[in-house]
């Protein structure tokens, strides 16, 4: 029988937003439980070696890696360790790692019940716990978004986030000669990590062209003054590119990967302003790995299951106090819109304060204004433009779990005349595999939107996952969770 644990403030997600929320709630006197699926807190931004804590405690490194100094790998590492030590040293804050929140149950008169399995992600016999919180802060971050292209399913093609996770979390390079491509400033820390781990970086290929970049970053430049440490970080990356003579091309994209058993080369093409490939500009580059990322998608499954309203951009809608549309449920960080670590920290602090019954500090509110503006520029300067659909030919696999091609998706929509994403998913099986559309969901929606005018009847549906993570049938059967909700499978 799963015990139900009554909690004052429950925070889900131990990234920058969740850590800031937990700390703020503690400062306002609430008892806090922080649940994090990973082995340690820190999230994507402060992802580190599994033994990072031993290192920071001055104990011997047992990893066998030469460079174990985490400080070299991260911006704001000291801030992270201070936050982590404060949380771990506080007996009124329980930090539970390896805690996988798999579902939430809506209630009319209170925040939802939160169901968790604690243990290895794919382990047997995980412990089942249910929390009954007075206030719930969701800070579950984002998924990476990668636009497909012919050959992207070859071994050696990685998402930039996976390459970053392997470098930061394992000190493993994805290849010897690597091309980094996609859109957004996130490509630059990935290059930095690859260099640090000893890989050769063949180049950086940014899809946004000069007009898009200038339009996004150079409008009202005085607003950027408040975020000038970001310019310092950027300058550091630029120096690294120059020192290693790494070419940085804008207005271009990887439109094909070639190879037999693994990637051996890629084709890079120049793009128009709307990201349509320009014929005749193709160039082949020999590499043994390519890392691709076109931004991030808020990770909303728990928020959606809790009933929180989600905007057209796919992010959870919040008010000025980070309150979602569901009483008692607050959200913070990438879940409420892609904005980077500083925005996540400011939002987390506000959400934790409000969850504990406090009033947000003016400093945190100001920071949020600054970094929301920064986020808007990021979206304008690097946001995906529609021409990419032209480099996805009919044979390109879009849903890799179920092996569904772009051609199959388009043909099914044309033949059935259907505009219902749910029915198209059921017919093609796109998004119904193991990842449940985490990788392909937005792409499937984008490709289908333009087939039958005026677009899909139920956009955003690929983000609905009532069971948030893969769970064994035995675990489900033994869990005491009950629900009569219609959206359960
Ligand atoms: C793959 C990836 C790599 C990134 N790397 C970088 C980088 O190197 N540099 C950079 O500037 N930005 C990076 N980012 C962007 C980065 O996510 C943000 O800038 C910042 O970390 C956002 O903080 P957050 O707290 O909102 O989310 P995150 O840092 O993503 O933290 C969310 C946390 O919630 C946990 N979580 C999610 N779902 C559950 C669940 N069901 N149960 C329990 N826990 C859960 C996750 O394990 C995670 O630790 C990366 C993003 C991704 C997706």
What this model shows, in words?
It is a single chain. By secondary structure, this protein is α/β, with parallel strands linked by helices. The chain contains 15 helices and 19 strands. The protein has helices at residues 16-27, 52-56, 70-73, 77-88, 160-170, 187-196, 210-217, 228-243, 301-306, 341-355, 362-382, 406-416, 421-428, 441-449, 473-478, and strands at 4-12, 32-36, 93-97, 99-105, 113-118, 127-138, 142-144, 157-159, 177-182, 200-206, 248-250, 252-258, 265-270, 283-286, 289-293, 296-298, 329-331, 397-399, 404-405. Flavin-adenine dinucleotide binds next to α1, β2, β4, β7 and α5.
Which radius of gyration do the C-alpha atoms yield? 22 Å
Instruction: Give the % helix.
Output: 25-40%
On the 0 to 100 scale, the average pLDDT is: 91
Strand content: 15-25%
Let me know the largest β-sheet. 7 strands, mixed
Number of strands: 19
Rounded to the nearest angstrom, the distance between the terminal CA atoms is 23 Å
Q: Which outline best applies?
A: globular
Quickly give the structural class.
Answer: alpha/beta
Bound ligands, named by name, code or SMILES: flavin-adenine dinucleotide
Keywords for this entry:
5-stranded parallel β-sheet, disordered C terminus, globular, binds flavin-adenine dinucleotide, 7-stranded mixed β-sheet, 489 residues, 31% helix, alpha/beta, single chain
Care to give the gist of this entry?
With 489 residues, this protein is of the alpha/beta class. It has helices at residues 16-27, 52-56, 70-73, 77-88, 160-170, 187-196, 210-217, 228-243, 301-306, 341-355, 362-382, 406-416, 421-428, 441-449, 473-478, and strands spanning 4-12, 32-36, 93-97, 99-105, 113-118, 127-138, 142-144, 157-159, 177-182, 200-206, 248-250, 252-258, 265-270, 283-286, 289-293, 296-298, 329-331, 397-399, 404-405. It contains 15 helices and 19 strands.
């Amino acid at each position: 029988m799963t015990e139900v644990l009554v909690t004052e403030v429950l925070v889900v997600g131990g990234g920058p937003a969740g850590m800031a929320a937990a700390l703020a709630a503690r400062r306002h006197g609430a008892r806090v439980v922080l649940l994090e699926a990973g082995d340690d807190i820190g999230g994507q931004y402060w992802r580190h070696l599994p033994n990072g804590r031993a290192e920071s405690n001055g104990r011997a490194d047992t990893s066998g890696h030469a460079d174990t100094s985490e400080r070299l790998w991260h911006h704001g590492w000291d801030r992270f360790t201070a936050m982590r030590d404060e949380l771990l040293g506080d007996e009124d804050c329980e930090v539970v790692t390896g805690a996988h929140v798999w579902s939430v149950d809506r209630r009319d008169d209170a925040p939802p019940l939160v169901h968790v399995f604690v243990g290895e992600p794919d382990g047997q016999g995980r412990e089942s716990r249910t929390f009954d919180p007075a206030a719930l802060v969701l800070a579950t971050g984002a998924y990476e978004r990668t636009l497909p292209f012919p050959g992207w399913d070859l071994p050696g093609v990685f998402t930039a986030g996976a390459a970053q996770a392997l470098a930061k979390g394992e000190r493993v390079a994805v290849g010897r000669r690597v091309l980094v491509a996609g859109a957004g400033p996130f490509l630059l820390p990935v290059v930095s990590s690859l260099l640090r781990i000893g890989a050769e970086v063949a180049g950086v290929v940014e899809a946004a062209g000069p007009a898009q970049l200038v339009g996004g970053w150079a409008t009202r430049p005085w607003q950027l003054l408040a975020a000038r440490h970001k310019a310092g970080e950027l300058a550091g990356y630029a120096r690294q590119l120059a020192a290693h003579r790494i070419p940085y091309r804008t207005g271009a994209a990887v439109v094909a990967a070639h190879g037999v058993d693994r990637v051996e080369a890629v084709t890079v093409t120049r793009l128009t302003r709307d990201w349509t490939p320009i014929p005749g500009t193709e160039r082949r580059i020999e590499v043994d790995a390519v890392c691709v990322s076109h931004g991030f998608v808020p990770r909303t499954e728990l928020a959606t299951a809790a009933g929180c309203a989600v905007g057209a951009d796919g992010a959870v809608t919040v008010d000025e106090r980070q309150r979602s549309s569901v009483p008692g449920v607050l959200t913070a960080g990438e879940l409420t819109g892609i904005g980077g670590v500083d925005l996540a920290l400011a939002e987390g602090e506000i959400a934790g304060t409000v969850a504990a019954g406090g009033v947000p500090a003016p400093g945190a509110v100001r920071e949020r204004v600054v970094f929301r503006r920064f986020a808007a520029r990021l979206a304008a300067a690097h946001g995906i433009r529609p021409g990419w659909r032209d480099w996805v030919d009919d044979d390109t696999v879009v849903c890799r779990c179920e092996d569904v091609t772009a051609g199959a998706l388009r043909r099914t929509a044309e033949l059935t005349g259907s505009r219902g994403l749910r029915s198209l998913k059921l017919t093609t099986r796109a998004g119904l595999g193991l990842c449940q559309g985490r990788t392909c969901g937005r792409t499937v929606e984008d490709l289908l939107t333009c087939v039958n005018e005026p677009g899909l009847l139920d956009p955003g549906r690929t983000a609905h996952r009532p069971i948030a993570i893969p769970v064994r049938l035995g675990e489900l059967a033994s869990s005491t969770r009950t629900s009569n909700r219609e959206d359960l499978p």
